[in-house]
Amino acid sequence: MNQLARMKELVKELNEAAKAYYQEDREIMSNYTYDALYDELVQLEKETNTVMANSPTIKVGYEILSELKKEPHEFPMLSLDKTKEVESLKDWLGEQVGVLSWKLDGLTIVLTYENGSLIKAVTRGNGEVGEVITNNAKTFVNIPKSIEYKGKLIVRGEAIITYPDFYKINEEIEDVDAKYKNPRNLCSGSVRQLNNEVTAKRNVHFYAFNLVALEELADLDTVEAQFQWLEQQGFEVVQYQRVTKENLEEKVGEFASQVVNNEFPSDGLVLIFNDIKYGKSLGRTAKFPRDSIAFKWADEIATTHLLKVEWSPSRTGLINPVAVFEPVELEGTTVARASLHNVSILQYLELGIGDEITVYKANMIIPQVAENLTKSNNLEIPTHCPVCNAPTVIKEENEVKSLYCVNQVCPIKKIKGFEHFVSRDAINIVGLSEATLVKFIEAGFLTELSDIYQLEQHREEIVAMEGFGEQSYQKLISAINQSKTTTMAKFIYSLGIINVGLSTAKLICSGHQTIEEVLSLTVEDLVEIEGIGEVIARSYVDFMAKEDNQKMIQNLLKYITIELPLEQNKEQSLLHKNFVITGSLNQFENRNELKAYIEELGGKVVGSVSSKTDYLINNDTMSSSSKNKKAKELNIPIISEEEFLAMVQE
């Protein structure tokens, strides 16, 4: 194949992938593959001195096909040039001072304020024209609806959904695993909804990264000054560091060390000249501004061999392929599995058992198959469900093929229902894994949820099971007994009601003293609660109206005791207080548990330190972490768990 023919092929593949990713919130190839093909195209364009009219190297953004209102940007947006080499960053920065920040992996939004009020929010779109999502933006959890500054302000930022919320939403929203494969796609689908009630439920955050226009810029001549001013107005800005060529490599390393523990999705860093006037004086190319550059992580690649493909059914009937390969070390951990997402990606990779493949961690977090070096293409798609043996079908939607089990009573639904019930944010029974639940269901120990509390009847059989023994059995029974006391919100969430996640369950239970009150709520009662709409209310009431569900709940309440709500004065002790949690915990099992405790007392937990933060909770109060540094710069108290508990128990 000659160079021009290869270029045409690459343009077609890359444009199809970009359309799927940006416009339709789906993936047909990995980011690694896209970047590799893009770099190949750039090199060919240099060698041939030819650029196709529809080449993605000269196009910005994506076409807009949704029903949202369209509007041109007052200040059009460009893409950023990129590098994966720290040395290239140093050369680019030269002797200037720069600001290094996260390149968040979400959806870019442009906000306009006038007279102190948010009047418009528009998506990035194709850089020239975006979609108006003002009503949706007003539901973002941390966006200031009004600010002190009364002149016209235009600010850009990234809308994101955190990993914890992404995983939680995947469990709560029926069929979500057929639509969303990562937080970025979920965020895009959430922000661009026609009904902002859906957006409100998704817990979208906004982080400002660029002050675009301000009527008075005289005192804000550096990026740092602009960030600090935005924080004073109530915005949360991307975490950033002041850098020079001498400390740039060290600072990049500090950012990289945080990736694994970050709750927010990112796909690299952005370096911008701190001196705004100098940056603007450099002008721009046809596609890139010259005042900033993106740094993408140089993916650590490992070569291994595919051992098998497991097909993982879900409670919606979707059966996802999962690659299982010889274990390899990536980014400091051992990896042996990676989701293949759907049949289309599996077929694109032309996989076969024993094939030599390369794997990496997307954004240093999520294991992915990068390439198939063998391409034997001999895998057979299952014709029967691995759980119930019913026939499977391949459904194609938006040019993506996915495998489904057609059996409406497939046992996997029961298994997933049990799995949800015992999960950490629900009843929280440690030791009841999916594998153990399957064993117990197959053995006939579990037919309904309340059977969990009668497992002692099967002591001898459980102790004799492979992988069990007396000690494991006693641990399990102890965990089950501990779960017998829980909160109203966790109990409601554990029932697996469609559209009712833990945060929604908390709203439903708020202000009620008994579980009987909560179980008898009507649609009219529920829609009066701020944050509860008609769809959620109807879903909740319909669930409670079913005789089988009533029986299930009453059987559970024979064993489960609902804790009484906290006293009202105690609930309000942290009202209007904002907390950030970082580092390891000693007094609480995990951050979610501490977060729930703070929320019960009326406080709020956010992901990053800003001027609106009241306390940073970190047991290592002398740490040199970026959050500690930021808190010290803003004179925000850094307190340990013990100090926090002493404060709330006064």
Overview of this structure, please?
It is a single chain. The chain is of the alpha+beta class and 650 residues long. It has six domains: 3-48, Helix hairpin bin (Helix Hairpins); 70-295, DNA ligase/mRNA capping enzyme (D-amino Acid Aminotransferase, Chain A, domain 1); 302-405, OB fold (Dihydrolipoamide Acetyltransferase, E2P) (Beta Barrel), CATH 2.40.50.140; 411-483, Orthogonal Bundle (DNA polymerase, domain 1); 486-562, Orthogonal Bundle (DNA polymerase, domain 1), CATH 1.10.150.20; 568-648, Rossmann fold (3-Layer(aba) Sandwich). The chain is built from 25 helices and 24 strands. Strands 12, 13, 14, 15, 16, 17 and 18 form a seven-stranded antiparallel sheet that branches. Helix 1 (3-23) packs antiparallel against helix 2 and helix 12 crosses helix 13 (434-442). The radius of gyration is 26 Å and the shape is globular. The N and C termini lie far apart (76 Å). 34% of the residues are buried.
